[in-house]
Specification:
The structure holds 2 protein chains of 2 kinds. In chain A, 40% of the residues lie in helices and 27% in strands. By secondary structure, chain B is of the alpha/beta class. Chain B has 4 domains: 217 residues, Alpha Horseshoe (Serine Threonine Protein Phosphatase 5, Tetratricopeptide repeat); 70 residues, Alpha-Beta Plaits (2-Layer Sandwich), CATH 3.30.70; 114 residues, 3-Layer(aba) Sandwich (Rossmann fold), CATH 3.40.50; 103 residues, Hypothetical Protein Tm841, Chain: A,domain 3 (2-Layer Sandwich), CATH 3.30.1180. In chain B, α13 links the parallel β5 and β6. Classes of the chains: A alpha/beta, B alpha/beta.
Chain lengths: 278, 527
């Protein structure tokens, strides 16, 4: 069977990854000199507590080529075809590590590396779609086709409670337009062409949730939906119920934004991912 | 004749301003109508020839561009109907005048989506009916027709309180209607040969039985260019009437507005020096700007090319230095200065629309009395321009925040319009006179508070009235209260007020920002 590999910025819940046989390669979180592997050495709760309380601001880094090499080697014992789907190359160097690993691996296992141009559960839903196709017995071409389709139909919208963490992390890019406001604002972002794009600004959480809802509603029809959050589980649950009313037939998954993205998005972030389709 | 009307209007503008329904320093109907008429007359002198048709068409164009405030917009529609009626006329006979007034009246009615009786509309209709009756009663005397018109207008103005409850409650007649009556009366005084001051009486016209309009060649039009001089005087006990008189003698296209603490001056003069020295003697100067009028066009083109190209631009009408900075920080493309006490003209808004590099423009009027002017400006441009009818600065901020540079024009308009209504606006100022409105009794000088334009509370102290308003808003957890302080509010007081709200309404977020808006101690948004 074809196996699917992704990275920890996909925020795929452990049980889903296990169920579909998806291998998740961890990115790293650094607090000063301490290095933690995302999802392996550091739980989300511990991370967000440190994020808001520690005076040391965390930084993040891509997995090393060695970590990928190890993961591919292990899988190569069970399969000779791997589809490795990752966070947008414009957001992280993760995909470079994966490519370096493939070059030094050699052997008879075929590894296809795909840039999802996404992250968080947008990447997650793409990897899930690929893994489901693989589980369904599709060929490598079939799985790649499903992956490409999922990439073109998946959209993500996120509401941040504050711009503070993006600013501190320096990953501003096109979000520059939202800085310098003399009022406190909560930005709504999307990922477009592999990059974080500013969409709208609101001043209250309630209004932001209404806008997220309207944006998600605009993506109808949906195949698969995910609600992601950093610290506010209650908001995520309420939002899931709200989406359930307009997408009664769709699966709505809930996932926690992991430490790597969480370091940039900050506490109080909430997002919705919709994978569309026919 | 209309020039004389304008001068008469000028003499009476302050009295008309005093007819505000709301006892607040705003809606200067007299000033708005006067400025609209000035623009109208400036254009009239530029008419290509002296036929009635050509002159009234120029006037219609001038009033369209110069329209300020709702009364100005309606006035411009009156001129539009008037000029259309005379489109093929060389001269103006009594029957033409009556017909033109009737057409003017129906054009005015058509320009308003929901015509309200007891306003300028009623006055123009009653006047035109009287004109028609007189013209049909076998008289060819233009003066007699106009006399009947003015008489009917006067009676009509007097009936406005009986038609419109807000007027009755406030104990005033309709300001726009009064303005129109004054304008017509001035014209009549001129026909009868009575002076209306301001010396432009060089116009001579035969009142009857022959045609008017033919004789306009007698006019010596003085048109000053030179330097456009603008400045803002900050001070105490400024005598606006005195300043207006003095500045009026220093140049033309003069505009002097403001109150005891701040006066804005705009004048075209060959010698800006004396204007500046005079202003310095009165108080502290801000925003001093002297531009060579001929250079302005060139400069305008340069600024335009330096501006960053955007697909969809936003133009906002904003008052107050702090609020201007806030709008800029939120990425507004262009700002038209004005609002509550100084309604911008359609032309000013049009210039802003034309001045941005984008072909698609969203306009945020941010004041109820600017919405129609903004719509007029949008109808005058070839660009795709639309108004999101924001009635207050907080609504404008909400709309601007919802603007998404990556979305298309239609979806932006939809999103921006949707966020306007849920934003509540509270405004606090001091009453400029005593009044009773919506069951609230107000003494002149008292603190008064409005929620979404409705007077709901009055009292001695501004913070206490603000509290009353907040209580009426039934704040819920998660609400955001933003206080923009301005007027003569001290920062210390504003900070204390914000702290008290945080203490008394836990669960509500409070943000305090300096708005710098004139007159209004606080503009507050509740979201």
């Amino acid at each position: 069977m074809i196996r699917v590999v992704t990275d920890s910025t996909s925020d795929i819940p452990k049980e889903i990854a296990q169920g579909l046989g998806i291998t998740v390669v961890p990115c790293n979180v650094h607090f000063g000199e301490e290095v933690y592997r995302d999802g392996a050495d550091l739980t989300a709760d511990d991370f967000y507590q440190r994020l808001t309380q520690s005076t040391v601001f965390p930084t993040t880094s891509q997995p090393s080529a060695g970590v990928f090499l190890e993961a591919y080697r292990q899988l190569a014992q069970e399969t000779d075809q791997i589809v490795s789907i990752h966070i947008s190359a414009k957001l992280s160097g993760t995909i470079n590590s994966a490519m370096t690993a493939v070059q030094s691996l050699g052997g008879r296992c075929r590894i296809e590396i795909v840039d999802s141009a996404q992250t968080t559960m947008a990447l997650g839903l793409i990897a899930i779609a690929a893994a489901e196709a693989a589980k369904g017995g599709q060929t490598l071409e079939g799985v790649l086709k499903t992956t490409r389709e999922a990439i073109s139909t998946t959209r993500v919208f996120a509401l941040l409670d504050t711009l503070e963490y993006l600013k501190r992390g320096g990953r501003i890019g096109k979000l520059q337009a939202f800085l310098g406001s003399l009022l406190n604002i909560k930005p709504i972002l999307t990922v477009k062409d592999g990059e974080a794009h500013p969409m709208e600004r609101v001043r209250t959480k309630a209004k932001g949730m209404d806008r997220l809802f309207a944006l998600a509603k605009g993506c109808m029809p949906a195949n698969d939906i995910a609600v992601v959050y950093s610290t506010n589980q209650g908001d995520a649950e309420a939002f899931t119920r709200r989406l359930g009313a307009i997408y009664p037939a769709a699966r709505i998954r809930r996932a926690r934004i992991g430490p790597v993205l969480g370091a940039h998005l900050g506490p109080g972030a909430i997002g919705v991912v919709v994978r569309g389709g026919s | 004749m209309f020039d004389a009307g304008t001068s008469w209007l000028e003499k009476n503008a302050q009295a008309i301003n005093a007819l505000n329904v709301f006892p607040v320093p705003d809606g200067d109907t007299g000033t708005n109508m006067l400025l609209t008429m000035r623009a109208t007359m400036e254009e009239a002198y530029r008419a290509s020839n002296e036929t009635a048709s050509s002159i009234t068409q120029s006037m219609a164009y001038g009033s369209l561009m110069g329209a300020r405030g709702n009364s100005g917009v309606i006035l411009s529609q009156i001129f539009r109907g008037f000029s259309k009626s005379l489109a093929a006329k060389e001269s103006l006979f009594s029957k033409d005048l009556a017909q033109a007034l009737e057409d003017a009246s129906s054009a005015a009615y058509k320009s308003v989506s929901k015509p309200v009786e007891g306003t300028i509309l009623t006055v123009v209709r009653d006047a035109s009916v009287a004109a028609k009756a007189k013209a049909e009663s076998n008289t060819s005397d233009v003066t007699a027709v106009l006399e009947a018109t003015v008489r009917a207008a006067k009676v009509s103005v007097a009936t406005t309180p009986s038609l419109l409850p807000v007027l009755r409650e406030a104990g005033v007649v309709d300001a726009g209607g009064q303005g129109l009556y004054v304008l017509l009366e001035g014209a009549l005084r001129f026909l009868k040969g009575r002076a209306v001051e301001k010396g432009i009486a060089a116009v001579t016209m035969r009142s009857s039985p022959g045609p008017c309009g033919k004789e306009r060649s007698a006019i010596d039009v003085k048109r000053h260019y030179g330097y456009c001089t603008e400045l803002l005087i900050g001070g105490k006990n400024l005598d606006i009437v005195g300043i207006r008189e003095k500045i009026g003698r220093m140049g033309d296209s003069t505009l002097v507005v403001g109150d005891e603490t701040a006066v804005r001056i705009h004048v075209h003069t060959f010698e800006p020096g004396p204007v500046v020295s005079y202003a310095t003697s009165l108080g502290v100067l801000h925003q001093v700007k002297v531009d060579n009028i001929d250079d302005q066009h060139l400069e305008f083109l340069q600024v335009r090319s330096a501006e960053r190209a955007v697909d969809i631009a936003t133009v906002a009408v904003v008052h107050g230095e702090g609020l201007t900075q806030i709008f800029k920080s939120l990425g507004v493309t262009s700002i038209v200065s004005g609002g509550q006490t100084m309604n911008p003209s359609a032309e000013e808004i049009l210039q802003a629309i034309e001045g941005v590099s984008s072909d698609k423009v969203v306009v945020l009027p941010n004041n109820k009395n600017v919405v129609m002017t903004a719509q007029q400006a949008c109808s005058l441009t070839k660009k795709e321009a639309e108004v999101v009818p924001t009635h207050s600065l907080p609504q404008g901020i909400a709309a601007l925040l919802a603007f998404n540079a990556e979305a298309n024009f239609e979806s932006n308009l939809e999103t921006m319009k949707a966020v306007v209504a849920p934003t509540r606006t509270l405004e606090l100022t001091r009453a400029v006179r005593s009044a009773e409105m919506g069951g609230v009794r107000v003494e002149g000088g008292q603190a008064i508070g409005f929620i979404d334009g409705e007077l709901v509370a009055a009292g001695e102290r501004i913070p206490a009235v603000l509290y009353e308003l907040l209580e009426k808003c039934h704040l819920k957890d998660g609400n955001l209260v933003t206080l923009y302080y301005g007027g003569d509010t001290e920062k210390v007081e504003a900070e204390r007020v914000a702290q008290n709200i945080r203490r008394d309404f836990p669960g509500v977020e409070v943000e305090l920002v300096w708005g710098g808006q004139p007159h209004y101690n606080y503009i507050v948004s509740v979201e």
